[in-house]
Specification:
Elements lengths: L31 H8 L5 H10 E4 L3 E5 L5 E4 L1 H11 L6 H4 L1 E2 L7 E2 L5 E9 L1 H8 L4 H20 L6 E8 L4 E10 L1 E7 L2 H4 L3 H4 L11 E7 L2 E2 L18 E6 L10 H30 L3 H28 L2 H19 L2 H7 L2 H22 L8 H15 L16 H8 L7 H19 L4 H7 L4 H11 L5 H8 L2 H6 L3 H43 L12 E6 L3 E3 L2 E3 L2 E3 H7 L10 H6 L8 E6 L11 E3 L5 E8 L17 E5 H10 L4 H9 L4
Antiparallel strand pairs: 1-2, 1-6, 2-3, 3-10, 4-9, 5-9, 6-8, 7-8, 9-10, 10-11, 12-13, 12-18, 14-15, 16-17, 17-20, 18-19, 19-20
Length: about 700
C-alpha cells in the first residue's frame, strides 16, 4: 500500500481549490503539486529534511524549534509554564516577574521537559500487519502491542538515553511508521516573560482575536553539560509575513478525529465530552477555591488552573461543533458514500462491509465501562502527584521483570527514559495542595461509581475522603525524589513498602488492570482492527491524496496571512503594540506588566504584535514555528480562534484561523522591554543554510 490515503473530510472536496489550507501533512507526503499550483512553491528534499530537523516536539504535549546553532529553542510560554512554576519559590515567583538568564551560567534545568528531534521515518506496516493478521480481540491486542514494543526497542538500540522511537499509527491503521527521534533531556530555561504579558487578556481572550500576547518561552538543549550543537535551525525574520504571504507551520498536532465513524463521533459527543466538561468545571472550582486562600496558594495552583480553563474552553468548542447538525450531516454523507461503494461489490462487502457495525458494537461496550475505566485506571479518582509516583513504582517493579514484548506499552525499554525523568523530577510537591486535590477526587469516585460499588468500598472503607487524604498525604515520603529513585532501583522494597500511596496503588492494581484489559481487548482492539479495514476500503475508492488524522507527530500545514469575516464584519489579520496599550485596563486579566508600562515611550507602537493565518492546526501545535518559504521564522503559533475549535472534526477554511506572535514583536520586546540583549543578539545573528 502506498503511504497516502484519502482522509474522510476531503472526500467531498475533490477540486483543486479544495486544497486551500486544509491538511496536517506528514514530512514524507507533502502536497507538492498543489503547493506549486497555488503558491509557486516546490519544496525539495533538502528543504524538507532541514525543516523537519529544525522543528521539535516537546514530549509533554507541545511543539518548538531550534533557532540558533547553539541549541536555542523557541516555544510558547504556556508550554514552559510548568517549568517556570517548578523553578519558582515564594521569594522568586518567575510566573509573575518573568525569567531571563543574563549569562549562560544562569540558564536553569527544567525538571521534566524532554525535546524530540525527528531524524528518521521508516515504514513498519508489513511487520505490524503480519503480526496481527487473522487475530481479533485479546490476541490482536497482545500481538499489536508486542510488535510495537519490539520495533521501538530495536530501532532505539542501545542508545535509549539519546534516542527515542515511537511506532505511529497513521490513517487509523492504514500505515504504521517508526519515528526515530534524537532525545534531549537536559533542557534549560533561558527566558520567559511575565504571565500577565504571555497570557494578556486571560481566559476571556483565549481562543479569540484580536490578541496581544507575548506567548513565548525560550529554552536551550544541552548535551554533555554544554549547549547542544545543531546543524538545522530556523533564522529569524524581523519583517515577518505580509498579508497573503505563504506561511508554513511545522509542529506536532495532538490529535484529530476527522476520520472517525459516526458511531465513534456520537460517543464522543454524548459521553466523552460531557463527562470531561463536567469534571473540568468542578475541578476549576476546587482550584479557584485553593488559590483564593493565600498568595502562595495562588502561585502553587496557577499552572493547573491555566490547563484546566484552557481544556474546558477547547472541549466546549468541540462539543458545540458536534452538536451542530450541519457537521453531522456532512459526516453522515461522507460515511454513506464510502459504505455505498463497499456494498456495491460482493467481494468488497465481504471484506470491509461489517467494519462500521463492529466499531458501533464496540461503542456499546465502551459506554458501559468508560466511567469505571476513568476512575480505576485513568486516575480521575486519584488527582495527586503522590499517587502518580506510587502507581509508576508499583507497575514499574512488575513490568520491568517481564520480557519487553509482554509489558504494558508505557514500560517498554524504549520508553523508560521518559518514565524515569518524571519519576526522578526535582519539581516541588506541595502537600496542602495534594490534600485538597485528592480529597475532591476521592469524593468523585463515590459519586460516579456509587457508594455500594466494591471498588469504592475498598478505597474509602468507613472513612471520609478528606480524612483519607489527610492521612495518606501526611504519611507519605514520595515527595522526596531520592526516595522514589531508591524504590525504583529496588523491586523488593516496593513490594514491602508501607508508604500509604504505594499500599493504595498495590491494593487497587488488580482491578485497574482488569478494567484496562477489558478496554483494550473488547474496545480498542476491535476499533483498531476494523479501522484498518475502513482505511483499506477508503484507499481502494479514493486513491492517494491527503493527510491522516493528527497523532502528535510532526506535520506540515500550509496557509497564508488572512483575516476573515465575523457576522459580516471584517477581522483584520494583524494587531499592533499600540493595541495592547489601548486594550489595557490596569486590572487583571488586562493589566500590562510594569516592564511594559516603563518601556512604552521606547516601543514602536506600530510594530505588528499578533496575526492570523489560514493554517490548519490543533492542540499540540502550541509553540510551532511559523516559517516562510525561505525557512525563516515569521511567527510563533500559540492559539487558534474560537471558530477553529471544531477543527478536531472538520476544517472550515473561511473562518478557521491560526494565531501567532509576530517575529518582529518578539525582537522588539526582547530589546526594549526586557533588555535581553544576549538572547536577542543570538536570535538575530543566527543565519540559516
Amino acid at each position: 500500500m502506498k503511504k497516502t490515503i484519502v482522509g474522510a473530510v476531503c472526500m467531498v472536496l475533490a477540486s483543486a481549490s479544495a486544497f486551500a489550507a486544509e491538511g496536517m501533512w506528514t514530512p514524507d507526503n507533502l502536497p507538492k503539486q498543489q503547493l506549486q499550483e497555488k503558491y509557486k512553491f516546490s519544496p525539495g528534499a533538502d528543504w524538507i529534511g532541514h525543516t523537519r530537523r529544525a522543528a521539535l516536539r516537546l514530549a509533554g504535549g507541545c511543539s518548538g524549534s531550534f533557532v540558533s546553532p547553539s541549541g536555542l529553542v523557541l516555544t510558547n510560554h504556556h508550554c514552559v509554564n510548568s517549568c517556570v512554576q517548578q523553578l519558582s519559590t515564594a521569594e522568586k515567583d518567575f510566573i509573575k516577574s518573568g525569567f531571563y538568564a543574563k549569562e549562560q551560567k544562569d540558564e536553569i534545568k527544567c525538571p521534566e521537559i524532554e525535546l524530540n528531534r525527528l531524524d528518521e521515518i521508516s515504514d513498519a506496516s508489513a511487520r505490524v500487519k503480519a503480526a496481527t493478521e487473522g487475530k481479533t480481540g485479546e490476541a490482536y491486542s497482545k500481538a499489536e502491542k508486542a510488535v510495537k514494543s519490539e520495533l521501538e526497542k530495536e530501532w532505539a538500540g542501545d542508545d535509549s538515553a539519546t534516542t527515542r522511537c515511537d511506532v505511529v499509527n497513521l490513517y487509523h491503521g492504514g500505515i504504521y511508521d517508526v519515528y526515530k527521534y534524537h532525545r534531549f533531556q537536559d533542557v534549560r530555561l533561558v527566558f520567559a516573560p511575565e504571565l500577565a504579558m504571555a497570557f494578556f487578556g486571560g481566559d476571556p481572550d483565549n481562543f479569540n482575536f484580536p490578541r496581544y500576547d507575548l506567548d513565548m518561552g525560550v529554552l536551550r538543549a544541552y548535551e554533555g553539560d554544554k549547549p547542544a550543537v545543531v546543524k538545522d535551525f530556523f533564522p529569524f525574520s524581523k519583517n515577518g509575513a505580509d498579508a497573503g504571504e505563504l506561511t508554513i507551520v511545522v509542529g506536532n498536532p495532538g490529535g484529530t478525529d476527522r476520520q472517525l465513524t459516526i458511531s465513534q463521533l456520537e460517543t464522543t459527543r454524548d459521553v466523552d465530552l460531557l463527562h470531561r466538561l463536567l469534571q473540568l468545571s468542578e475541578q476549576r472550582g476546587v482550584i479557584e477555591q485553593f488559590r483564593s486562600e493565600s498568595e502562595e496558594h495562588d502561585r502553587i495552583a496557577e499552572s493547573d488552573l491555566f490547563g484546566t480553563e484552557n481544556s474546558y474552553k477547547a472541549l466546549k468548542g468541540r462539543l458545540e461543533a458536534l452538536q451542530d447538525p450541519k457537521v453531522f450531516e456532512l459526516k453522515r454523507r461522507q460515511e454513506a458514500e464510502l459504505r455505498d461503494y463497499v456494498n456495491a461489490d460482493p467481494a468488497r462487502k465481504a471484506k470491509f462491509g461489517a467494519a462500521w457495525d463492529e466499531i458501533a458494537k464496540a461503542q456499546v461496550t465502551y459506554r458501559e465501562i468508560t466511567v469505571a475505566h476513568q476512575f480505576m485506571e485513568g486516575r480521575s479518582g486519584f488527582f495527586s502527584k503522590y499517587f502518580g509516583y506510587a502507581r509508576t513504582l508499583v507497575r514499574g517493579a512488575d513490568e520491568r521483570a517481564k520480557p519487553n514484548a509482554e509489558r504494558l506499552r508505557e514500560f517498554g525499554e524504549a520508553r523508560l527514559p521518559i518514565i524515569t525523568q518524571g519519576l526522578f523530577s526535582t519539581a516541588p510537591v506541595y502537600p496542602d495542595y495534594e490534600k485538597v486535590k485528592l480529597a475532591w477526587s476521592l469524593t468523585k469516585i463515590r459519586e460516579w461509581l456509587g457508594a455500594d460499588n466494591a471498588f469504592v468500598k475498598q478505597v474509602l472503607g468507613k472513612e471520609s475522603p478528606r480524612a483519607l487524604a489527610e492521612k495518606w498525604v501526611g504519611g507519605t515520603k514520595l515527595g522526596d525524589p531520592a526516595v522514589r529513585k531508591a524504590l525504583w532501583n529496588d523491586r523488593d522494597a516496593v513490594a514491602k513498602s508501607d508508604d500509604p500511596f504505594i499500599v493504595l496503588a498495590r491494593s487497587i492494581d488488580p482491578q485497574a488492570r482488569a478494567i484496562r484489559k477489558r478496554m483494550e481487548n473488547e474496545v480498542e482492539s476491535v476499533v483498531d482492527h476494523n479501522a484498518e479495514l475502513i482505511a483499506a476500503a477508503r484507499f481502494e475508492k479514493y486513491g492517494t491524496s491527503v493527510y491522516p488524522d493528527a497523532t502528535f507527530t510532526e506535520r506540515f500545514s500550509f496557509g497564508e496571512v488572512s483575516g476573515w469575516n465575523l457576522d459580516g464584519v471584517p477581522v483584520k489579520p494583524f494587531t499592533d503594540i499600540a493595541g495592547a496599550f489601548a486594550r489595557a485596563t490596569g486590572f487583571e486579566p488586562f493589566a500590562l506588566p510594569q516592564t511594559w508600562l516603563d518601556a512604552k515611550n521606547a516601543l514602536n507602537m506600530s510594530q505588528r504584535f499578533n496575526f492570523v493565518t489560514t493554517n490548519d492546526i490543533i492542540g499540540g501545535n502550541s509553540g510551532s514555528p511559523m516559517i516562510n518559504r525561505n525557512a525563516e521564522i515569521v511567527g510563533l503559533v500559540f492559539d487558534g480562534n474560537i471558530e477553529s475549535l471544531g477543527g478536531d472534526y472538520w476544517f472550515d477554511g473561511s473562518v478557521n484561523r491560526t494565531v501567532a506572535v509576530h517575529s518582529g514583536a518578539i525582537l522588539e520586546a526582547l530589546h526594549k522591554v526586557y533588555k535581553a540583549d544576549r538572547l536577542a543578539r543570538e536570535l538575530e545573528s543566527a543565519r540559516g543554510r
